[in-house]
Specification:
Elements (H helix, E strand, L loop, with lengths): L6 E3 L2 E3 L6 E6 L4 E7 L3 H16 L8 H17 L1 H12 L3 H23 L5 E3 L6 E9 L2 E5 L5 H14 L3 E5 L6 H12 L7 E3 L4 H10 L5 E5 L2 H11 L5 E5 L5 E4 L7 H16 L11 E5 L3 H12 L20 H16 L3 E4 L20 E4 L6 H4 L6 E7 L2 H9 L6 E5 L3 H10 L4 E4 L18 E2 L4 H6 L2 E9 L11
Parallel strand pairs: 7-8, 7-10, 8-9, 10-11, 12-13, 12-17, 13-16, 15-16, 17-18
Antiparallel strand pairs: 1-2, 3-4, 5-6, 6-20, 11-19, 14-15
Helix pairs in contact: 1-7, 2-4, 2-6, 3-4, 4-5, 7-8, 9-10
Pathway: Amine and polyamine biosynthesis; betaine biosynthesis via choline pathway; betaine from betaine aldehyde: step 1/1
Protein name: Aldehyde dehydrogenase family protein
Family: Belongs to the aldehyde dehydrogenase family.
Amino acid sequence: MAAVETIHVDGVWQAAVSGAQREVLDPADAKTLAVVAEGGVEDTDAAVAAARRAFDQGPWPGTPVAERAALLRRVAELLQRDRETVALIESRDTGKTLEEGRVDVDDVTNAFRYFADLAAGESAGRVIDAGTPDVHSVVVHEPVGVCAMITPWNYPLLQASWKIAPALVAGNTFVIKPSEVTPLSTVHLVRLLAEAGLPAGVANLVTGTGDPVGARLSEHPDVDLISFTGGLISGTKVAQAAAPTVKKVALELGGKNPNVVFADACATAEGFDTAVDQALNAAFIHSGQVCSAGARLIIEESVRERFVAELARRAEKIKLGRGTEGGVECGPLVSAQQLDKTEAYVASALAEGALLRCGGKQPEPNEARPATGYFYLPTVLDQCHREMRVVREETFGPILTVESFQTEDEAVTLANDTEYGLAGAVWSADTARARRVAARLRHGTVWINDYHPYLPQAEWGGFGKSGVGRELGPAGLDEYRETKHVYENLRPSPVRWFAG
């Protein structure tokens, strides 16, 4: 087989040193979608060395912020130029619908523009009043250095942009490792960075697996920061590997997110319809493969049966199929491994006493859903409790569990009874109650009477085992900067501390 050049080092596209390759599968039919280079330790070391040279000797860290911001805006324009192409790549690689792919491209575009505007609008530094006119004191920001980025398979392009845009505008260089399951849109994005005029060596890409590529990046002594988005187990390994070199670590490790619905939110026909519709959206968009998915419905007992019955009825009508086909509302799971995991979670829930209201199996194959595809029906599991694995653990599949409460305090206790703390929502027609409950929820993002929207100017991240650090917003830029205090004595004189 001819060499596949998806590794990008020092401005050059190349094959893996070992010559190894990997097939990327289309989750809709399990057929080969593309072949990519399978990088290893040698490729990773070469990429880090290129990033190190570009940072220590290259022009990028010293490039004026306005010029770095201008490059980000050019990348945004190129993304919009290639919108349909990139959306199709993302849809076919991840299984999500084409419309979701388009939304992702637009969100990535917005992220590049936001960080360009944020950095360009800042002052040169924060002047500190030292209490005397003889001292000029200022706090400035400088780039961290060489950044390693490991991104997940569910939103590969989006998660790459949340790291790349702030890292670049801050003046860093980087090496990125996308998931081996969905690397194709990241490859395209790195090509656009080069087209936009980014100097060679600033952006480096190694396609390959977490072990060895991700592991090597985590431990590498020439990496100054590692940003990881993915599962808890892998994130823990990243932090452990990074510890001996005391590099900066940012981790976004998912969530088990509560969607709390009070009865008063369902008091009118419109309110009921909206809450049910949003519960479907919270749980089943992208087949539930979303870190912030509202996979735990916590519903007031008085409306539970009516709400869950309607929810299950609508869930059964969700149209599954290949994401690029018109009319399809939900695509396949990303891999056979994810399908097996979903089946295992449902089986364990039923064994532990959950009541299956809909789904719970693979759909019958048809022209839109080949038998070899990784499809699973949207599944609603009623009568769940906190001792169940399916309630405690992040399933990352089209599974919605249902718990109930009778009092506000009970609702808050249930919602916070998780080791994660990424996101959650509260639904109520009582504004005071909704805000009161939102204030008590220990989650990094809380929606009131909505689910899933986010803003690039607002920080994203979680409490507890959902990780450390934040992406997006001003804090998302600060992750990629070091803070330096420069104290200048304008009239130096002897201190005379020592008599001699």
